[in-house]
Amino acid sequence: MYNTEETTRAKNPDTASTAVQRVVDGSDHAVAATRDRLRDAAEAVSGRLQRLQESGASALTHAAARADDLTRQGLEQARHASHVVREQAHAKGDQAVGYIRHKPVQAILIAAAAGAVLAWILGRSDRPR
Question: How far is CA 57 from the centre of its chain?
């Protein structure tokens, strides 16, 4: 009647911690990718500005410095966003683990209902219309 593997997973707070870690890892990956793109863009802009600067345009020195400042600000915002997402993911994970520990039967029923709804949705998407 009950799937012991699902019951074990629902009762195991490590599963929630693993899910939280996946969210954290995903946010870290997104921040790293954003940071890399910002660096690439900054290098491209700096390279173009440097070529123009070498041609004698003094205003470009100011523009290059501004581009560097904007790049640093963007990287700092990405770091801050990563930190906020990580804190929120840990808080939600701790909250989920606490809920599972205090109400294991409800947690199992909620997981089963969510699984049933997901199976129903996926089942409907496989049918020809």
Answer: 42
Q: How far is CA 102 from CA 8, 19, 96, 99, in A?
A: 15, 19, 10, 5
CB-based contact 8:88 (threshold 8 Å): no
Cβ partners under 8 Å of residue 124, min gap 6: none
Distance CA 38, CA 44 (A): 10
Task: Compute the mean pLDDT over every residue in the chain, rounded to the nearest whole number.
Answer: 80
pTM: 0.42
pLDDT at 37: 84
Angstrom distance (rounded) from CA 49 to CA 64: 6
Per-residue burial over 64-89, b = 16 or more CB atoms within 10 Å of its CB, e = otherwise? beebeeebeebbeebeeebeebbeeb
Q: What's the chain's length in residues? A: 129
Long-range contacts of 101-108, Cβ-Cβ distance < 8 Å, separation of 24 or more: 101/13, 104/10, 104/11, 107/10, 107/11, 108/6, 108/7, 108/10, 108/11
Residues 115, 117, 118, 119, CA torsion sign: positive
